[in-house]
Amino acid sequence: MGPASGLLERASPSRPECWAKGAGCSGPGLPTFHWALSFQVRLQVQSMEKPQYRGTLHCFQSIIRQESVLGLYKGLGSPLMGLTFINALVFGVQGNTLRALGRDSPLNQFLAGAAAGAIQCVICCPMELAKTRLQLQAAGPARTYRGSLDCLAQIYRREGLRGVNRGMASTLLRETPSFGVYFLAYDVLTRALGCEPGDRLLVPKLLLAGGTSGILSWLSTYPVDVVKSRLQADGLRGAPRYRGMLDCVRQSYRAEGWRVFTRGLASTLLRAFPVNAATFATVTVVLTYARGEEAQPEGEAVPAAPAAPAGPALAQPSSL
């Protein structure tokens, strides 16, 4: 791509195992900030006819009082199972799509991110369905599901593949543009901040760019996320209410007004900055290191043994 390429694009090594190595390093933020997801989902799906929570702080207090600290981490198993694979898929697809488009431009950054967001929905949608159901189920002996796999297995037995992929259309509508915004914002911010290898403030700049990109990404499609959560939770506590995505939008707006589409936004943004700051900074630094290791065998000459007979030179094996 040349000198004008963005930092993430220049850091991207060509081999898939390097993508997996970088994406696998982005997981620690998930268990640390999973509690914010519990607030987000509970606030999004509660009915204003009989509201359980008055806001984020009241939601936190209620969970601690009724379910203990463990209630904050309900549904953690589902995203933990899929996180590394999803991140490897997202960053790998984005990098390869950007190369295939042939030019590093703002439009291509958006398109490459959107392609990555769309493809990972195949994993993301069932994973979030299980997470949502586990977070909302009753605690103790009355619980319906024993874990993420048991949740998906029960849904599949009752509703088939269609049930496992409940909310897929709204997930696609959320993930496709939001990942486009995600990668575009990160590219623009890293250029504006002058993020270059060797800069002593590189890591703080990457953290700022990554966290801000995460917030902009969530803001761009947050109302769709509210609809997705409501569709995936529909029928868990009583008869199903919604016939589809548009019906969910109509009923929600009619009953609660436009504010329903911002429900849980505060806790989402509270989590978005640190998690995405850690993700982008870690992936960029690790991939930059991997790119250096990958290029090293090509740039270093291997000294030949003085007494060795003439013959074809052996390539130095890669340590990756």
UniProtKB/TrEMBL annotation:
Keyword annotations for this protein, in alphabetical order, are: Membrane, Mitochondrion, Repeat, Transmembrane, Transmembrane helix, Transport
Region Disordered, residue ranges: 297-320
- Which coarse location class describes where this protein primarily resides? mitochondrion
Composition bias type Low complexity, residue spans: 298-320
Q: Which Pfam families match?
A: Mito_carr
How is this protein situated with respect to the membrane? Multi-pass membrane protein
Provide the residue intervals of the Solcar repeats: 13-100, 104-192, 199-289
Location in the cell reads: Mitochondrion membrane
Q: Which domain of life is it from?
A: Eukaryota
Q: Which residues form a coiled coil?
A: none
Report the family membership. Belongs to the mitochondrial carrier (TC 2.A.29) family.
In its UniProt entry, what is this protein called?
Mitochondrial basic amino acids transporter isoform X1
Organism of origin is Ceratotherium simum simum
